Amino acid sequence: MNLEMVMQELETLGKERTKKTYISNGAHEPLFGVATGAMKPIAKKIKISQSLAEELYATGNYDAMYFAGIIADPQGMTESDYDRWMDAAYFYMLSDYVVAVTLSESDIAQEVADKWIASGEELRMSAGWSCYCWLLGNRQDIEFSESKISDMLDSVKNTIHDSPERTKSAMNNFLYTVGISYLPLHEKAVETAKAIGTVEVKRDKKKSSFLNAYESIQKEVDKGKLGFKRKHVRC
C-alpha cells in the first residue's frame, strides 16, 4: 500500500464523534477521527514500513501520524529521527502515545527519554516520562538500573507539583507504573505517592483533573495486578 491508498482507507474509517473527541483533547485539522482499533486491519496488511511511516507522519494529519507509529520501525530510527517526530508532535496524544511508544521499542529508548526529561519542554518531558512508563510496563525488571529509577522517583517527588501540566500527568503515570510494574521499588513508589498526595492537572477549557497515584496503585494491588507487564506496547 502507498500513501494515497492508506489515506483513503483512513478517511473511510473516520467517525465524526471520534473526531470531536480527539479535537476536545487537543487535536486539530487535518484529521478523520479513526478509532485506533479500526486501524489494525490496515496495519496487518503493511506490517512494518519505515518509509511509508515517514510519509504518513509528514502529512500532519493526526490519524495518519498515529498510524505511522504503528507501522514504524523503532530500531530503524535514529535519535535525530525521534527528535524530528517530537518537533511535529503538537499535543500529548502524539508525544505520549505515538512518539514515546515507538521510542520505547528501540534500543536507544532510555538514552533519548533521559534527554527529553531534562529538556524543560513540556511535551518532550511528558514523552520522556511516558516512554519510561511503556518501558517499565513491558520489559523485565533486570533491564533497568534500580538506583536510576529510584533517583527518578525522588525527582518526581521534588518537582511534580511545579512541573508543566502535561508533564505532571506523565510523571504521575510513571509513579503509578513503578508502583505496579517494577517490583524492586514497589514500596518506595507507594511511599513516594503517599507523600505527594493528590496532583492537580489544569486543562484548557476543561475542569482540572485530580490525580492520586497512591490510590491508583492500591486499586491495582487489590486486583492482584502487582508485577503486571504488557506483552506488547504497540497495537
From TrEMBL:
InterPro entries: ARM-type_fold (IPR016024), DNA_alkylation (IPR014825). It holds the Pfam family DNA_alkylation. This is 3-methyladenine DNA glycosylase AlkD. It comes from the Bacteria. CDD domains: AlkD_like. Transmembrane segments: none annotated. PANTHER family: DNA ALKYLATION REPAIR PROTEIN (PTHR41291:SF1).
